[in-house]
Structures are given as structure tokens and as C-alpha cells.
Amino acid sequence: MLCGSIAAVNAQDNSKFEAAMKKNIDQLDSAHAKIMTGDATLMEAEANAFERIGNAEKDKWQPYYYAAYAQVMEAMFIKDKDKVDGLADKATVNVEKAEAFSPNNSELTCLRSLIAVSRISVDPMTRGAQYGMESATLLEKAKSQNPENPRVYMMQGQNLYFTPAEFGGDKEKAKELFQLALQKFASFKPATSVDPAWGEAYTKKLLGTMK
Length: 211
Prior knowledge:
Helix content is about 75%, strand content about 0%. It is mainly alpha-helical. InterPro entries: TPR-like_helical_dom_sf (IPR011990).
């Protein structure tokens, strides 16, 4: 009887966790759509919300993943480039917290790659080579951790797509990687309802610009 009661409590707690996460993921998606044309600092509130969930749960990697994701998106789009490194540092701390609960996680390694990319924007001419190589190396690591993760191929394609040809960019290779990513998305199933599942629509958008 005691085991049954504990299981019921755990199920209820997990249900509350998933409900809170889904609500905040929806808000994150909405904020992400707005920062493309508006204020990147919208992401700060989203990051704070996920950090609060993570601090309350104490054993879940997903809240810290989304907190870091929000921070790196803010770093990507913020107009004041003096704030990029600080945001990237905060995102890194949250990734490290997530990795403590889920080591060898391809999604978290992909996020580390995005953090490296965000730092390039501070000074592309002096930072491009260093952080571009770091991002590429991390994506290869993420691929080894989970070859079926579609975000690996999406990000590899994105890096080639946005890098000038004289610095190693290649639109044709990017197109191939986007197509491979879409194949992976077609069969990809997140382990839980709050695991990362984003990127398919963005991949189709980028691929659409190449037709």
C-alpha cells in the first residue's frame, strides 16, 4: 500500500512539473517569435521562469536546458553586443547544471554549440575562427552522442549557410544537411513531453530560401 501511495504522489508531482513546463515552453515559443523583429530582452523573463522550475525540482535537466536556450537566443538577437558574453556565460552555467542531471546529452551539447556561435557576433572578424571551430567540434560530439538527433544536422547546416564562402561556408552542403535534418525530424520522438522538439519549421524555412 505504501509503495502505491508513493507512486501516486510521484505521478502527481510529475504531472504538475510537465504542466508548468509546457506552459512556459509555449510562452518561450511566443517570445522567440517576437524577438525576431522586436526586443530580445523578452527572453530574460522566460529564462528566469525556467530557472525557478529547475531550482524547485532539483533533479530535472529540462528546465535548465530551456533557461539556457532563452539566454542564448537573447544573446543572438540583442542589439547591445556588450551584453552577449554575459548572457552566454549565464547560459553556460545553466547547461552545466543540466549536465549534472543528464551527462552525455546530445541536446545539451548542441546548446553549447549555439552558445559558441552567439559569441561570434561580438566581433565576427576576430572571433569567427575560434568560436566557429568550437561550435563545429561540439556538433560532432553531439552527433556521436545521438546520431538521430535532428538538431545536430540542422545546426551544422545553419553554420554552413550563414558562414561566408571565403570562410568555409557552403550553401550546397548546408542544403544537404537541412534535407538530412528533415529526414531525422520525420522519425524523431522526444523521450518525454517536455524534451526539446523544436527546429523542424525553422529547417524548412531555411531550405525554402534555397529553392
